[in-house]
Design a protein that fits this description.
Radius of gyration of chain A: 34 Å
Structural class of chain B: alpha/beta
Distance between the termini of chain A: 25 Å
Oligomer: heterodimer
Strand order of the largest sheet of chain B: 6-7-8-3-9-10
Largest sheet of chain B: 6 strands, mixed
Strand content of chain A: 15-25%
Order of helices and strands of chain A: HHEHEEEEHEEHHEEEHEHEHHHHHH
Number of helices of chain B: 7
Largest interface: A-B, 25 and 27 residues
Shape of chain B: globular
Radius of gyration of chain B: 18 Å
Number of helices of chain A: 14
Helix content of chain A: 55-70%
Number of strands of chain B: 10
Amino acid sequence: MLFKDQLDFVTQHIKKNKVRVFMTVLAATMGCAFLIVLASVGFGLQDSLRNEILSNEKVTKIQVFGDKQFTEDEIHEIKGIEHVETVLETITVNASAHSFFEGRDTNSNLYVTNMQNFEQVNGKLAEGKYPSKPNEIIVGYHFAQTLLNDAERNIIVEKNKKAEVEGTYYDGNEEGYKESLIGKEIEMSLVPNTGTVEETEKMKYTIVGVMEKPSNDWMINNSIYVDVEQKPVLAANLVAGDVKEDEMFYSEFNIFADSMENVKPILDKLKDKGYSVYSVTEELDQMNVFFLVLKIGLIFVGTIAVLIASIGIFNTMTMAVTERTREIGVLKAIGASPKLIQRLFLMESTFIGIVGTLIAVAISYVISFVANAALPLILEAATGEDAFSKSDIIFSLIPWQLVIIASAISIGVAMISGYRPARKATKIDVIQALRQEL
Amino acid sequence: MIQVENLQHTFLIGKKGKEKQVPVLKGVNFEVKKGEIVAIVGKSGSGKSTLLQTLAGFMKSEQGSIKINGKEIANLTEAESAAFRLQQFGFIFQNFQLMPGLTAFENIELPLKLQGTKKAVRKAKVKKIMDKVGLTEVADHYPNELSGGQQQRVSIARALITNPPILLADEPTGSLDSETEQDILLLIQSLNRELGLTFVIITHDEEVATIAHRHFRMYDGELVKEEV
């Protein structure tokens, strides 16, 4: 029998029992949609957490534990490991930078680093370029915003009071210097954290670049980054401020891989060499294992719904075989092979599975979209916290892998539930079947 | 063309464990030549239907041999038997056995579909056979819209559509009035004459047997008499 004729045969029977088939498809749809939506919660939460972790840290970064100071030889050795892009030394100055500009001032952290290496790992800036001259610096994204005069400070205090009454807080984003700082010269003095002395003498620097906005809205970056060549100048300034030489700077070393995939082999090699190192990808690995177990659990629970729906398919197909006993008998009598009869009934249950799955996938995407849009608002209304609507939490995510898994389960279960009735159809006795009344 | 030798079959009747053996075919022997109409006449329970069902491969005999054109078919598997039926046999049933959801045209087309014939070829063949058996007018009618005689013509057309060399008829006029019965018998005779088809007709009706070239009488599981 041609495949097209087999399809015609199946659709003809489905049309004859529209309501029954519709109800069975509905059950299959509900089961499959439940499976997809349930598992999508696992996928969504995993994605949210993954994004959260990756937004805080550069994925290719390998941190070195403690205050381990690398020697030149060690740096050379580490750089020699395959796929290591660079070893970045970031020196934190043990003083806060007090900057002055056009009657405004601000306090910020001061970092000293090799600008070439820094550019390599940090990538593009929000504005400007990386320093190429000794007195050039780059500043954090919020540096201009935190450059305030007294009047603005008072306004911020007022706004903060008002915000506190409403149970929120005000971050001062409406105040500060509003124009571009690129090419502007600032004066900077140091306030040692040792608390032993007053501010040091002012030094002049030109801002040539502004860092990208931090990945999280709540992060404020108004730090100042100067090239490592300025270290002696800063040291001289601090010495004048009576800071002991070994308390001036703290170095932090970070190793950067050329891609995320290469982080693990580099980590393993570094650990073998006796370095205490850590990468956010290790956290991701642990998290992925946890979510894998969670997702398997959710898919298992969802599969139970599909199995319940399969009872409907089994019943429908058993009814179909019983009702068509005489027809099956005639087909067998005129030469239909048992295999063909089995295939025709399997096609019918598969059709129910496929249609149910297709509708379920479409419905699941709608439910997922609505859940992601509405749940934050509902939670905000229920709890009074606006954290849900402001954060990027994904409550439900349906990747293509989930669609494939759910479809395979749903269609597979539909076929299995149709198998027994289809086998029963092949076993129908021709003589008994032909004796049946119309 | 058909050679049946020592065909035996026994039914088990009664509750499980207390079954009683009832022999229905007790060593049946007969032969049918190509182009013959052979009638097997007998009363209800004589075993004539069992003989036809065994011949058709609907059931397996316990012993004996059935050869069609020299090919032994008594031991074929279910699938082999189905494939053999599709090529070699046409069936005419007492109560027509048409598909209620299919039109006359579609019912006749069914064996061609099972053979995997393309639609255009099917259409031409069905039209031709419908003309031959006088059904052109009712091609789009469903079985419940046809008279008994028309339904049996559809059944005969369906049996002929694959050009089988042998037609097996089980009480072909059993559900028809006497006038229609004559029509159908004349049709069988003309098909036999014009196409050289071989018919094996099972009947309890002596009238039907009159169109046969030879007829056998079945009595208590044995072919006891042959009348020419």
